[in-house]
Amino acid sequence: MGKIEIVLRNHPGGFLLVTKVYQLLGDIKLEFDDSHLNYAKETYQRQLDLDTATARIKYTVGDVEFSREHFASNPNQVMVTKISGNKPRSLSFTVSLNSKLDHHCQMKGKSQIIMEGHCPEKRIPPLMYVNDKPKGIQFSAVLDLQISEGNGVIRILDDNKLRVEGSDWAILLLVASSSFDGPFTEPSDSKRDPTTDSLSVLKSIKNLSYADLYARHLDDFQNLFHRVSLQLSKSSTRNLCLKQNQYDGVPTAERIKAFQVDEDPYLVELLFQFGRYLLISSSRPGTQVANLQGIWNKDLAPKWDSAPHLNINLEMNYWPSLPCNLSECQEPLFDFLTSLSVNGRETAKVNYEASGWVVHHKTDIWAKSSASDGNVEWALWPMGGAWLCVHLWEHYTFTMDRDFLKDKVYPLLEGCGLFLLDWLIKGKGGYLETNPSTSPEHEFIAPAGKRASVSYSSTMDMAIIKEVFSVIVSAAEVLDKNEDDLVKRVRTAQSRLYPTKIAKDGSIMEWAQDFQDPDVHHRHLSHLFGLFPGHTVTTESTPDLCKAAERTLHKRGKEGPGWSTTWKAALWARLHNSEHSYQMVKHLIYFVDPQHEKPFEGGLYSNLFAAHPPFQIDANFGFTAAVAEMLVQSTLEDLYLLPALPRDKWANGCVKGLMARGGVVVNICWIEGNLHEVGLWLKSQKNSLKRLRYRANIVPVNLSCETIYTYNGQLECVNTYSLL
Fold this sequence. Notes:
This protein is of the alpha+beta class. Helices cover 29% and strands 22% of the residues. The strands form six sheets. It has an eight-stranded antiparallel sheet. The chain is globular, with a radius of gyration of 27 Å.
């Protein structure tokens, strides 16, 4: 292999060698007197209510029951806590703010604490002196304290704490802001004042009561969360409409530990909806993308920087957004991709002398697009932006939003396509190839007998390029751009792309040559991209490749980190193999003790966070997407019902509100493992769906807008209902 040189320049965003780190702002510290150490342990309860996105704690000290309620309001941009005792004047505590970053606190009036601080300019900060002007992002948090009228007092302690004494209840409002002003503004150049911004938010809600804030929070959250419901049962005796959950009150950790024996379908429901809750809570219009730990990083130096990784992790974070009816939650991804394309255009020009734009495998809040530091097997991978472009097209196929396709998607596709055309070279046999090429984070045994990672035309490279080229052609057809020069060049290139090949052992080859694999159980499944999340390998059009994909999955085995497990579940689902898909669902749900965890073994922590280990949120999202894939699959023209339903494990069930391509909302109920009823209605104004499929049964359909269609288990339309 020839020597590879990458030009690195110290340019904001695009050419930094090292990504920046996602760090936590700080903590609210609550201090109670020693009597609270003697709470009645049998009374202690802690829960997260997914239906209301509210965390609650209850416990009893003597004859007083204390409770805390926490929620984060997206519409009002405030974190709210209510602490109360059920006896008058029973509540006393001290509250303060703290941060692991450089900070200071001060009082504002008699009931507010302001914490101001800054991030270091560099990952390893130099010595700071009192008069130095910090150059990292500035931040501010303002805590406002309210107590019951008539009962209780607030005192200031040490000029940085608030003490509540003899109150019935207390409400804490926390608002935080930073000086971040987009990826193209240096922190030192930002004109934003985070303290002013925080105080402005507090002022905007000063006339809202706790009940007002909670009502707005519920309306905002449940508008998204209530779109999809899922009920599963092993037994035909369960009444799905009058659900009685025998596990109420059982600690989540105990339920996880028991799953390998009882295979509790309620826990599958919970974990499915937990993924939706996490996406709603970490990715909304106007926020940053959900990174490697969503927003739930607790460390200053988190593993892998808690950064968005583009060789599976960031993409998996957004897999459930479309099928699980949360398309708005993808907006931060597309805003981020727009920024990446700006820096990526410079990276393509400087590093590759290519047109268009390119992004590699690891990025950050500054939209870093260049190759990162580290081993070539992960650092040299210029396909990250191309993979994300597939999400753009998927958003169109699920929403049928032509304006979005024209204004947002197509310009990004054009730039991506231009880079890929320049990146491809003519190889043996007249094929177009990528060279150099890697398969993310994996190696092979070179002919000389040594481990290597750089070759040409890795299967994932070619699969992503095939997918993007297909997307460009499809988008051009919708937008009447078939005669564009780019589209003509893409069409010409499509037939010359290096094909996916089958190895001697019947599996799909990961590289262009049938190299020996030093780690057949490797966590990545890159060479199966065309099967899932791609669409170039299907049971109908490429049965031989599907058979090879099945062999590949058997070779990879069950073991691996959480995200690998959920990817395997989705891949098996695409093969319509319910048995193995469910095996991967089951494989994820085992208890991981953070004190005795082992890297790359997956599992769940006691709070349902998925383990790599350590914690990575992608598997939580991947699980939700995989379960949806087991129940509904689609193309623009075909809708597959229960394609990978584990009939003996989820014999009876009902799912409502899943989305299919073409903008179709899908409700399905099944009894004893067999389809019972299907409800369909168009969320979009354009119908593309032509066929319903259930097992061997295929029926033509022609849906109209604003009409609900009901089908029986034989796919006979038995009722229609107008929404007008």
